[in-house]
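FAQ: What does a ligand-bound record look like?

Like this one, built around NAP:
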Amino acid sequence: MYDIIIIGAGPAGLTAAIYARRAAKTVLVLEASSYGGQIINTPDIENYPVAAHISGFEFATNVYNQAVALGAEIKFEKALEIKNGDEKTVVTPRGEYASKAVIIATGSKNRKLGVEGEDMLVGRGISYCATCDGAFFRNKKVAVAGGGNTALEDALYLSDIAETVYLIHRRDSFRGEAATAEKLREKPNVKLVLNSVIKKLGYDKRLTGVTVENKLGEQTELEVSGLFVAVGRIPETDSFNALADTDASGYFASSENCKTKTDGIFVAGDVRSKDVRQLVTATADGAVAATEAVKYLNS
Ligand code: NAP
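The answer part, i.e. the structure of the complex:
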């Protein structure tokens, strides 16, 4: 029996582990894939206090090592279900783990563009991770779809590798940070394709191009061998929906104290409904959720 099981080893979950261990609680972190969450794909973090520049991989590895050094146990198993009672039981493909409290910090997954051929072309020109796959497109023409921080940072990263980067966004202003957008505008090999959506993918075993349509209905074909899709995320709530309410966008509804409608179940990080979804708010959530879980255990 653990005091706290944390589901998800991203910045929120690992920060929760650090705070729970420092409060002398026993902690198991369950992670379905690799530690770090989505930040591990960010090439350069510039907006986290203290470090002017740090890669997502280095950030995630530091937090992971800090949690492990403090005594958090980490198992790479996917949490499939939480059986709720006075005692919580988390079910994975390998077994069942009991705890007194659970923090759900499962984050979110990539949203797809929804254009015909997208699934088939993943790994054949389509990618959801510029830092993972950008090197395959050295001196080639690529496109990035989206207008949030991920799309802007991906386009900036790719501009140092690819010959040309088309940044295709459905509006004429960006959701992502103005400072990054400004840097992109200064890059001669970045072409902004605004007020436009991707209507069609061209392919012949691999991606050969995209057809974009602007708001006037005019279509243009862009010859590219890579398309990096960065059109947002979908919260990973499905397995635990019975335990916590969700907002209109599907994120777990919870106030700033990270509590849910179920006693002893807390939510933290990108999976939680919030206005500012940033690394700094994910780690802050981890601290808050663990502190509330400790209060719950001590009450
Ligand atoms: P996001 O902020 O939700 O942006 C998604 C973008 O994709 C938006 O520009 C949106 O357009 C566009 N979009 C959505 N659905 C589309 C569709 N079907 N077709 C075409 N375009 C579509 O997602 P994100 O960039 O992945 O970022 C997720 C969160 O992580 C954000 O809160 C972001 O700030 C944060 N993040 C932070 C950092 C950092 O702190 N360094 C780095 C990366 C991400 P509209 O703008 O028109 O809605």
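Follow-up question: can I read anything off the structure? Yes, for example: The chain has six helices and 17 strands.
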